[in-house]
Specification:
- The protein is α+β, with helices and mostly antiparallel strands.
- It has a domain of 222 residues.
- It contains 18 helices and 19 strands.
- The strands form four sheets. The chain has a seven-stranded antiparallel β-sheet with strand order 1-18-17-13-12-9-8.
- β8 and β9 form a beta hairpin.
- The two termini are 21 Å apart.
């Protein structure tokens, strides 16, 4: 079961899969993974470790996620999979008409217009209260300590930080965003790899969240600070928006792919795109990974899923078609029949009506967590609440100002969400947690690592290391530079418009932890395209 030696695969020479017996944490920052492992060794379970790791990542990777972001989780506890949706809605006071009247033709990246209610603190508190063994403050304490004492910036994050510091945009320099510079570029220079950074205000905020089980963030001192900054600088977010929010437990959705059940969070998340593509692929034999036909079939299936998702996926109770219809075998058969030997220009079908961090944790009790959180694009909205260190997300930029679009902006509505945790089961037993970060690359990454493991037997590290592709639009695809030349030429001959990219950062960053159902042994992989690390014992 996905045990092929990583060294036998030509693109897996950097690392091999990590094996352990008692516990494992896989994420993009070594210090965050070590924090999660310490929580496991000190009496916490996988849920506690996931919260501690997630909180640490808000300190160590501020370029990608933060206290003011959203989160999703798939949690395996006592032989059952639970889903948590901690994505917040648009403020009730906002509307598409107001945004257009303020001079915007589309949703902006920066400033209050793109800010939705943050879900991360509620995710941590909700998970801790239901499944954790430690208090929320105990799980947040390591992140509080590193924020206060300082941490050494890792190479990947330093590069992202420096890139963000060079962004010049009027909306990124406004009264609403003026505290971003003093918080993250205090001396006018973005930190370099190895520089020590301290976030005292961030530490104080995490401490308040821990002491109050996140009540302070939504109905207390921090909520008052957020609402006051919004009112003072022309924002839409109100104290009422924050007070009315709680993360929601949801039923995960799945398809059976060649004997394995693959699970995702239901809409408003885009995880269904990966499931739709797998549903199309499941009746297509994929014999060899490094084969033009394999790449072609995967890309065409992903295209068909994506255009359907872009047309239909939004807040669940406002979708024009049902999840069941979009994931039905009958609809998959219809879409599969459209795949030919040549690259298509995909169009939506008609089913029957009806800059992110990822981590995986497992413990010796059988619990496993697939967790993802994000501020979305480029540090988020750049709106930093004074004296709190809270940088708010810009998830609202995924709303549309087109009244005919599924994600048309309405106050109080959730938009299509890119962040998606994944999970695999077989015969009602947990196989493991997986995820690939990277905006709209995420379902494409999910499809690729799943087929790498299930169709081609690659272990988690080899599945992550294998070179990736990304469908961009129409017939345009981008291939990672390690994809063999004969495949690039073969895809071009099939009508794909091929570009080769040497920036591996655009192909997502993944983590995987699997469990052998017979022995309980854990084995995992981490992203070689980032500062990925696995801590285990």
């Amino acid at each position: 079961m996905f045990h092929n030696d990583a060294q036998s695969y030509p693109y897996s020479s950097r690392r091999t899969a990590v094996f352990a017996r008692k516990g494992m944490v896989s994420t993009t920052q070594p210090q965050a993974a070590q924090i999660g492992l310490t929580i496991l060794q000190n009496g916490g379970n996988a849920i506690d470790a996931a919260i501690a790791t997630a909180a640490a990542l808000t300190v160590l990777e501020p370029t990608s996620n933060g206290i003011g972001g959203d989160a999703f989780a798939l949690v395996w506890v006592k032989d059952k999979l639970h889903g948590l949706n901690a994505s917040g809605p648009a403020p009730k006071a906002i509307s598409a008409e107001q945004v257009k009247a303020s001079g915007h033709a589309k949703m902006p990246l920066f400033g209050w217009t793109s800010v939705t209610v943050p879900g991360c603190p509620s995710a941590w508190a909700t998970l801790s209260k239901r499944f954790g063994k430690l208090s929320l403050l105990q799980t947040l304490q390591p992140a509080i300590d590193i924020a206060r004492e300082g941490f050494a910036v890792s190479p990947t994050i330093a590069a992202q930080w420096q890139k963000a510091a060079k962004v010049e945009h009027p909306e990124a320099n406004s009264p609403a965003t003026e505290h971003w510079q003093s918080t993250f570029i205090p001396n006018g220079q973005a930190p370099k790899a190895g520089d020590i950074v301290k976030f005292e205000q961030h530490a104080n905020t995490l401490e308040l969240i821990g002491k109050t089980d996140a009540e302070s963030f939504y109905r207390g001192e921090l909520a008052e600070a957020i609402a006051a900054h919004s009112k003072a600088t022309g924002g839409y977010l109100s104290a009422e928006d924050l007070a009315g929010y709680n993360a929601q437990w949801v039923d995960p959705i799945s398809v059976n792919y060649k004997g394995y059940d693959v699970w995702e969070i239901p809409p408003n998340g885009q995880g269904m795109l990966a499931l739709m593509a797998l549903n199309i692929l499941k009746k297509i034999p994929l014999e060899y990974r490094d084969n033009t036909e394999t790449f072609h079939q995967q890309i065409e299936a992903m295209k068909l899923a994506y255009v359907d998702g872009q047309k239909y996926i939004t807040q669940a109770d406002q979708m024009q078609v049902s999840v069941e219809a979009m994931l039905s075998d009958e609809y998959a058969d219809q879409r599969r029949a459209l795949i030919s030997d040549q690259a298509m220009l995909p169009t939506p079908g008609k089913p029957q009506s009806g800059g992110t961090v990822y981590l995986a944790c497992a413990d010796d009790e059988g619990n496993m967590v697939s967790f993802i959180q994000s501020n979305f694009h480029d540090f988020g909205s750049r709106v930093v609440v004074p004296d709190t260190g809270i940088c708010l997300q810009n998830r609202g930029c995924n709303f549309s100002l087109d009244a005919d679009a599924a994600n048309y902006l309405v106050g109080g509505k959730q938009t299509l969400h890119t962040i998606i945790p994944g999970f695999i089961t077989k015969d009602n037993q947990a196989i493991g947690a997986f995820g690939v970060m990277g905006g709209f690359m995420q379902p494409q990454g999910h499809l690729q690592v799943i087929t790498n493991m299930i169709d081609f037997g690659l272990n988690p590290q080899a599945a992550l290391d294998a070179p990736r592709w990304q469908w961009m639009k129409d017939r345009e695809i981008t291939l990672e530079h390690q994809v063999p030349l004969h495949i690039a030429k073969g895809l071009a001959a099939k009508g794909h418009q091929v570009q080769v990219c040497y920036d591996s950062g655009i192909f997502g960053r993944g983590q995987i932890i699997l469990r052998n159902p017979q022995t309980g042994v854990l084995y995992g992989g981490t992203e070689s395209r980032a500062d990925g690390y696995i801590a285990a014992y």
